[in-house]
Amino acid sequence: MANLPNCPKCGDEYTYEDGHMFICPMCGNEWTAADAQAAAEAGIIRDANGNELADGDTVVVVKDLKVKGAGILKQGTRVKNIRLITGASDGHDIDCKIDGFGAMALKSEMVKKI
């Protein structure tokens, strides 16, 4: 099977190819390889709903996350004043401080902008 990209809008891995278009069955997003490459080159970081994130935004965690050595970061946890990191090799592109947890890095597909 071909190695298809994850959906840039919802991050789902079950995308399929229809001609020259990629389609996400979960959210209905359609994009081309050129669209995905242009967004990656522009350095745009998007949340779980596809909204563009910027430094200083407030976001909410959309899923319970296991944190090594600290327990579980619950769904609905508000994170204020985020900082975006471009070029992170491990996929963690948000740097922040969370009350009760301290400094940590999050993946943008695990948060939504308020």
Strands of the biggest beta sheet: in what spatial order? 1-2-3
How many domains? The number is 2
- Approximate helicity band: under 10%
List low-confidence stretches: none
Helical region count? 1
Kindly provide the radius of gyration, computed on alpha-carbon positions and rounded to a whole number of angstroms. 15 Å
Shape: elongated
- Biggest sheet: strands, sense, closure? 3 strands, antiparallel
The secondary structure category is mainly beta
Q: Could you spell the SSE succession in H and E letters?
A: EEEHEEEEEEEE
Beta-strand content bin: 25-35%
Q: How far is the N terminus from the C terminus?
A: 38 Å
Q: Please report the total strand number as a whole number.
A: 11
Mean pLDDT across every amino acid position: 86
Describe the structure.
This protein is mainly beta. It folds into two domains: 1-6 and 14-42, N-terminal domain of TfIIb (Single Sheet), CATH 2.20.25; 59-113. It has one helix and eleven strands. The strands form four sheets. Strands 1-2-3 form a three-stranded antiparallel β-sheet. Strand 2 and strand 3 form a beta hairpin. Residues 45-113 form the Protein YjdM C-terminal domain. Pfam families: YjdM, Zn_Ribbon_YjdM.
Key descriptive features of the protein:
single chain, N-terminal domain of TfIIb, 2 domains, three-stranded antiparallel sheet, 9% helix, elongated
Compile the SSE list and pairings:
Blueprint: E1 16-18, E2 21-23, E3 30-32, H1 33-42, E4 59-61, E5 65-67, E6 71-73, E7 78-79, E8 83-84, E9 94-98, E10 102-106, E11 111-113
Antiparallel strand pairs: 1-2, 2-3, 4-7, 4-11, 5-6, 8-9, 9-10
